[in-house]
Amino acid sequence: MRTDLAIEEIKHWISMNAAQELSGAQWWEEKGEDEITVSTVRITTPEGARRLRRPQGRYTTLECPYLRDNCLDIHERIINALTKIWEDFLQPSVSGGLTLVVGLGNRFVSADALGPQVVDQLLVTRHLPEEAIPEEFRHTLAQVAALSPGVMGQTGVETSEMVKALVKQLHAERVIAVDALAAGSLQRLVTTIQICDTGIRPGAGMGNHRRELSYQTLGVPVLAVGVPTVVDIASLSEQPEGEAFYATPKDMDEVMRRLSRMIASSLNRALHHLSPGQLKAYLY
């Protein structure tokens, strides 16, 4: 099964090894209103990492069947839930340190445009002189820079090389990577958002491995957020893995606009500690 989702991997392992105890990993979930479910997977040992084919760390997944629908009320509640998740991952805060947000993917491919579209809607502040910031926000706004590096086929450069150079040049204290993911089931296709503290390996779920963005490669903490926008046809048909074909929703352009807005809004609120009204006034 090709998947980037830790929750799918652990449930698959349990279903295939029902008589065996899974050591080195735990998972639990909390159900809220509007069918919003937040699940957490913690991989705590090398043995757990080997079995689940994931680095040790924490993976939190928000699932909601209405995530892809055009319903602003539910989207606002999803943004609130995501903001709380981000606030948990971002603690303890890096006082005064720069956060570099990297939007991975190809903005010209609908199913791969999540990263660039999220970056387009971020409140970036590194370039602002103090006198340009309203006084009431000067002790609230975080230092944020953003990058949409494109893909190797466009640049000829590994994304990890660009990000590593920029982290060093800007003295960034953490990186947040945003990328489209692959799911192993239709149920989680564009209904799931995963946030983790283990970094990311772009294209891993689709078998197109690029160099990872992680603490080991960049020297700073790396958080990652993504939404599964494609599903492997072989996973659906239970056929042996061979040449890979992927399915994606037909209305992905519109769905991607909504998904990127929700993720960007939650990041803006969590990073800058501003209310929705303040962010709207400041951004627009």
Your description of this structure?
The protein is α/β, with parallel strands linked by helices and 284 residues long. The chain has a single domain, classed as Rossmann fold (3-Layer(aba) Sandwich), CATH 3.40.50.1450. It has helices at residues 6-16, 46-52, 72-89, 114-120, 152-155, 159-170, 215-218, 233-237, 252-272, 276-283; strands at residues 25-31, 37-43, 57-63, 98-103, 143-147, 172-183, 192-196, 222-232, 246-247. Strands 1, 2, 3, 4, 5, 6, 7, 8 and 9 form a 9-stranded mixed beta sheet that branches. Helix 3 (72-89) packs across helix 9 (252-272) and helix 4 crosses helix 9 (252-272). The longest helix has 21 residues, at 252-272.
Gist of the model:
The protein is an alpha/beta fold and 284 residues long.
SSE inventory with pairings:
Elements: H1 6-16, E1 25-31, E2 37-43, H2 46-52, E3 57-63, H3 72-89, E4 98-103, H4 114-120, E5 143-147, H5 152-155, H6 159-170, E6 172-183, E7 192-196, H7 215-218, E8 222-232, H8 233-237, E9 246-247, H9 252-272, H10 276-283
Parallel strand pairs: 4-5, 4-6, 6-8
Antiparallel strand pairs: 1-2, 2-3, 3-7, 7-8, 8-9
Helix pairs in contact: 3-9, 4-9
CATH superfamily: HybD-like
Strand content: 15-25%
Question: SSE order in H/E notation?
Answer: HEEHEHEHEHHEEHEHEHH
CATH topology: Rossmann fold
CATH architecture type: 3-Layer(aba) Sandwich
Question: Any key phrases for this structure?
Answer:
alpha/beta, 10 helices, 9 strands, 284 residues
